[in-house]
Amino acid sequence: DGGITQSPKYLFRKEGQNVTLSCEQNLNHDAMYWYRQDPGQGLRLIYYSQIVNDFQKGDIAEGYSVSREKKESFPLTVTSAQKNPTAFYLCASSAGLLSTGELFFGEGSRLTVL
Amino acid sequence: AQRVTQPEKLLSVFKGAPVELKCNYSYSGSPELFWYVQYSRQRLQLLLRHISRESIKGFTADLNKGETSFHLKKPFAQEEDSAMYYCALTSSGTYKYIFGTGTRLKVLA
Asked: Given pLDDT bands bounded at 50, 70 and 90, which one contains residue A100?
């Protein structure tokens, strides 16, 4: 089954702890993205990666970190420096600049900080 | 600054009525506009893109560069159209996509 797989779907964390959200794709897409979805604020870009071993900050990168060691994987770490980490996180991918431009999304991960 | 504005958080219409979800954008280059939809318990997915000039599920959207708008329209709303709709923008040569805040469409029986 092709697509984007995010895990875990639900995650609880205590304040002060780092947590890593997994995102894997088997679409052979070059570009991958992390968005944060909050009610009334839409999707806000955290980080994106155009190619392996390269990534750029989005609009709300503070308190987050990413890596892109493999084409199919783009994990997101929510660090203790993120002031309001409770949110729904969406991972996406696209084929790249020569594609139709469509983003393919995962089912999301809901993080709750206790 | 790049920005996508969806002025309505919630839009309620009766079944069979026309529907228009508004999207305005601010972009200095040559934008590519999209509409994404999220049905209940489903993942976010592409509905249509302006370069395709398609009609998907009866929805159409025309890019108006003069008014910097990309409104989504459907002449007769159906109950299954109830969902969250997001307008998004990117530009050729960039990987960055900007989304609006979304509009929840409720189609009432």
From this structure: low
